[in-house]
Amino acid sequence: MAQPLAIYTEIDAPGQFYRTDGTLSGLAVEIVREIQKRTGNIDRIKVIPWARGYLELQTLPNVALFATARTAERNAHFKWVGPTDEKRYSLFVKADSTLVLKTLEDARKLGSIGVYKDDVRDLFLTAKGFKNLDRTIDNISNVKKLMAGRIEAFAFATTGISELAQSAGYKAENLKEALPILKVQLFIAFSQRTPDVTVKAWDKAFKDMKKDKTFERIYRKYYPVQPLPGPAITTF
């Protein structure tokens, strides 16, 4: 009998968000639930802080965390199914900001940059030696801090920025993209001690979804014109 999976995610629209009726939905959520249906998995998706989910992904068996950016640093540490999406992460500033950011060196000179604790943006900038990172476990607070002048910029994906601004009580027009910093593919990540048979079943279901166009149908609900994710990047 298969061991139960701890399936974790965070709120990060349009991949994962709560609808007005309180139900969990989104691109990645729909993909995961379709895989669950095809594999017979009935474990509940739990929304938890990213840092906790990422810690359990690193240390416990039978853990799945989505949507997880697959990077060179993470590649060998987890088992992967996807990609479910592709994202460009950028630094955002207030719409009326006069800051000019042309390089990461420019960003390094800022007083503070908001990042999501232990997220790929945090890890990327930390690895680049940034000492001016203001970490949070709630992306909404980054918008509020920015608008209140407590940080000068924050890192976020170009997709979903409108939903994030609205959740914080603002509009997308209150923010502007200042500097692209990273492109990644997003996956369902499994802890190393998750049985291969489980990961292979999820991977087969995902590939079958792509073959029968179910993946494309779900993807187009959220991104009507954006190109579908390319083939999985597995070597770095």
How large is the share of residues in beta strands?
A: 25-35%
The number of distinct helices, counting runs of at least 4 residues, comes to 8
Give the topology string: H per helix, E per strand.
Answer: EEEHEHEEHEHEHEHEHH
- Number of beta strands: 10
According to CATH, what is the class of the largest domain? Alpha Beta
Structural commentary:
The chain has two domains: 6-86 and 185-222, 3-Layer(aba) Sandwich (D-Maltodextrin-Binding Protein, domain 2); 87-183, D-Maltodextrin-Binding Protein, domain 2 (3-Layer(aba) Sandwich). The protein is globular. The chain is of the alpha/beta class. The model has no long low-confidence stretch (mean pLDDT 96). It contains eight helices and ten strands. Helix 1 (27-39) crosses helix 7. Strand 2 and strand 3 (24-25) form a beta hairpin. The strands form two sheets. The chain has an eight-stranded mixed beta sheet, sandwiched between helices. A two-stranded antiparallel ribbon has the order 2-3.
Q: Topology, pairings included?
A:
Layout: E1 6-9, E2 17-18, E3 24-25, H1 27-39, E4 45-47, H2 50-59, E5 63-69, E6 79-94, H3 104-108, E7 113-116, H4 120-127, E8 133-136, H5 139-147, E9 153-157, H6 161-167, E10 175-190, H7 196-211, H8 214-222
Parallel strand pairs: 1-4, 1-5, 7-8, 7-9
Antiparallel strand pairs: 2-3, 5-10, 6-9, 6-10
Helix pairs in contact: 1-7
Short précis:
Helices cover 33% and strands 27% of the residues.
